[in-house]
Amino acid sequence: MGHHHEEYDIPEEILPKLKNYWKEPFKFNFNTSIKEVDSDWVQLNENYFYPESGGQLPDRGIITPLEDRKIKYNVLDVQKKENEVWILIPDNQLNQGDKIEARIDEERRISLSRNHSAQHLISAVFWEELDFDTTRAEIGQIESQIELNKPPTLDQIDKANKMVNKLILENLIIESRYYSDLNNLNHKYRGKMEDLEVYQLVAIGDYDLNPCGGTHVQSTREIDTIFINKIESKKIRFYSGPKAKSAYVDNAIGLIKLSRMTSVPFDKIPSSVDEIIRKKNYFEKKVLKLENEVLELKYSSTKFQKLNKFKLKSIQASKLNKSTILGLTDDLNKNEVVFAFDDNDLFILSSGNEELTKKIMKVLRESGVKGGGKGKSVMGKIISLDVEKLKSIISDRLKSM
Q1: Which part of the chain has CATH 3.10.310.40?
Q2: pTM reported for the whole predicted model
Q3: Which part of the chain has CATH 2.40.30.130?
Q4: So what's the pLDDT on residue 2?
Q5: For the chain, where do the domains classified as CATH 3.30.980.10 start and end?
Q6: Given this model, what pLDDT does residue 3 score?
Q7: 45-59, 148-162, 176-190, 304-318, range with the lowest pLDDT
Q8: What's the rounded Cα separation, in Å, for the pair 20 and 40?
Q9: Higher-pLDDT residue of 325, 98
Q10: Distance (Å, rounded) from C-alpha 119 to C-alpha 236?
Q11: Which listed site, 109, 159, 223, 281, has its alpha carbon 20 to 30 Å from 30?
Q12: Rounded to whole angstroms, what are the CA distances from 191 to 112, 130, 144, 177?
């Protein structure tokens, strides 16, 4: 991105408008008084607790009345309501004007700040190097998550992971800058921000500049390292700091064990696993094709059972393929019904008449079966009855119509 790194001084006119947790993000102990009490929620005259916002979880802590230091109230939540910060202290006996000592959970705040800075760096790398936008972020104390605008490949994940950890080692300064207007800003920044009286922009060296209302560490070195723990389509879960280091150790131990079990050299494990996955996918497709061919043969060789003016065909498969069954039953006559089931207790009920399917499914539900759908075909799961009993229920219903 190539931002110009510069010495930054907070403009005097903005200073009074800054949140205390922006100005002093590592102030964990302070004295103040109760401004207002509303049942389990209290408001402080001076507040350093961070309220849940921007995907970052709220602070926790302890509040002690100065009149009786034996009393310790646990802070269980911090929320912003109508631009005021409210603190949840269930069953408190506090009153307006009471002087208190507040202690923020230091370990939690530092973990959240570290993970938030790590998220900015990961999002910046995906944006700058790989052309991805971050659409959402959830900052947790242990595991955090970002959601991208499109699913990344494993190669892109690997590249981002290496780049982020490289930038961490460069010990880039992380600092907050404050502006009353972003329209005339000389520097390009990542992300969007709603209209506010004051904007906090978090700069990571010359690499990233991003509007954010959260708390952060002071350098990338404090992030320590990141470990991408899980990928779910567009979502990426990650650890930072000690948990990330622990995950790398666990991962290495797992690879060593796998190397010993398979007699594959340690450095060859990734390519060996890729080959195993490729073969697994190949054979799964082969098996699926064979299962569908068997299903088609069973369908064509099974005759309809005549039940008064209706006909019923029952077929069993090791594993049902919905698209195959729907294709086979697409041209059923109005008086024909197909009941297909598999070894996993799944079933598909199809007929040539939507109203007929609905009537049979109603009887099955009354018998304890779960399932449903719209149209001439519905799916479900056999819960308590055996298949023969279900076939009998369907037959009896068709005979009575």
Answers
A1: 290-400
A2: 0.66
A3: 29-104
A4: 41
A5: 109-262
A6: 40
A7: 176-190
A8: 23
A9: 98
A10: 10
A11: 223
A12: 20, 16, 19, 15
**C-beta separation of 396 from 312 below 8 A:** no
CATH of 109-262, one of 3.30.450.40, 3.30.980.10, 3.40.50.150, 2.30.30.100: 3.30.980.10
- Tell me which fold the domain 29-104 belongs to: Elongation Factor Tu (Ef-tu); domain 3 (2.40.30)
User: What angle separates helix 387-400 from helix 354-366, to the nearest 10 degrees?
Assistant: 130
Position of tokens 């202290």?
89
CATH number for the segment(s) 290-400: 3.10.310.40
Query: Which residues, including other chains, have CB under 8 Å from residue 145's CB and lie 6 or more apart?
Result: 137, 138, 235, 236, 237, 238
pLDDT > 90 fraction of the chain, expressed in percent and rounded? 46
Which of 26-35, 264-273, 301-310 is least confident? 264-273
Mean pLDDT over 264-288 rounds to: 74
